[in-house]
Design a protein that fits this description.
The chain is an all-alpha fold and 126 residues long. The chain has one domain. Helices cover 80% and strands 0% of the residues. The termini are far apart.
């Protein structure tokens, strides 16, 4: 079981989930307080694009999948189409599990930020 986990746990996977944990926890705390952090949102979008792009390059090399000529540009423009296509092309039906895990991590880390803000900082409306 541990060998199976180690074979799927790469530095790129860890980077994606650590980024989600940090960025969405802070984003959830900002949302809880109704703060509009435009610079934080911009950095989060660029950071997510970077870590997902790094994961895509790492995973495509591991699976011997040839990416388009300029994957960064295509990823930044068409990631909602490119990533599911890539996942279904390389994993088949298991792509649903990968998408579900990523969506769950995204939602849970955002909720975690709101919960942490509510517990440690207090209620928004005093």
């Amino acid at each position: 079981m541990m060998n199976l986990l180690r074979s799927h746990l790469t530095i790129a996977n860890v980077m994606v989930y650590v980024f989600l944990l940090v960025a969405n926890t802070l984003g959830g705390a900002y949302a809880f307080y109704g703060l509009d952090a435009e610079a934080f949102g911009l950095l989060t979008q660029f950071g997510l694009l970077y870590v997902v792009g790094y994961w895509l390059l790492n995973d495509s090399q591991k699976r011997n999948f040839k990416l388009p000529y300029c994957p960064g540009l295509i990823l930044s423009i068409a990631w909602p189409i490119l990533l599911p296509y890539y996942l279904f092309k390389t994993r088949g039906g298991k792509a649903f599990l990968t998408i579900l895990i990523f969506a769950g991590a995204y939602i849970l880390t955002t909720a975690l930020g709101a919960v942490i803000a509510a517990i440690f900082i207090g209620p928004q409306f005093d």
